[in-house]
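Let us practice reading a record.
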Amino acid sequence: MKIVVVGGLADSLVRFRGRMLEAFVGRGHQVTACAPEEHPQAQPALEAMGVTYQPIPMQRTGMNPLEDLKTLLHMVRFFRRARPDIVFFYTIKPVIYGSMAARLTGVPKVVSMVTGIGYPFLYPGFKARVLRALTCFIMGLGFKKNRVVFFQNSENRDLFIGLGLVKKDRSILINGSGVDLEDYAVAPPAGQGPVFLLIARLIRDKGIVEYVEAARIVKRRHPEAVFRLVGPFYPNPTALSKDEVEGWQREGLIEYCGETEDVRPHIARASVYVLPSYREGTPRSILEAMSMGRAIITTDVPGCRETVVDGENGILVPPYDAEKLAQAMECFIWDPERIASMGRESRRIAEEKFDVHRVNAVILKAMGLSDEKTI
């Protein structure tokens, strides 16, 4: 069969969907992967898997009607030309406009994955309400064609069912994107002192401002503590500016390590992984840190809470609360033995619940592509 997979970022096709794409190819299917840009690293990596890469025009953020119409028309033309048997969409814009294009072109089987809900669903105010209403209307049109919609946490699934966007019998809950346990092998925690790490796109939704404020609180009492931040600047209504990040560095609060294609060296040099996000699907960065044996501090919100058993492999804190976040950080400073013990439990949970091959087995079965082979 011809399978087309469309995502919001080219490198995520390799990093987040690579094992799934390999599973498709391994079953003899013809696979094309699409994302909004040429990518010098992703394209050869996909081709090495036996996957064809096809860039598509798409603004990853914002709602420019003309640009979004251009995306929709491009996908309509592409689907008519490629004549796929199955299309698989993930991230919000591919899900919305890809599902509409698939419906217009009569693609036999349409599958989507909701990895997060984004700005329109997270914030109050007139602009967010308008965007939310528009997003729901467009989603409703697209989802009518979907054979199945995967969700990474139960709250997002219940939200979409409650809004009438997805039927309950077409929704399936999965354990995030999964993580490759071999690629993200256990590494001993950093031994040079307390090193905290946050990896994320530099937007406020990830709790970065609270992370920095918590660092300010902790450093007053523990100046030896190290706080690192890794991730790209990203166009978004809640984006952080370079001036803000540079100001935090001048204060000595954080070490900004830039963006990276490979997070593993950064995780290996850290003691505790921190993600104070406001809401997630299931955060891939936490799964990677868990697989490498790191204790976790994250927020008690949808998506994040699924990764932590509070007090066993990490600590859950309220969102938006820098003081509680700082207290959780200090737990590891006062009792450093928890770093190793909680890290071991993180790895155990990753093996039991978040192994990418287990996650992909559920996806392939729902898509009607499962067989008796080992995935």
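A brief commentary: The chain has a mean pLDDT of 91.
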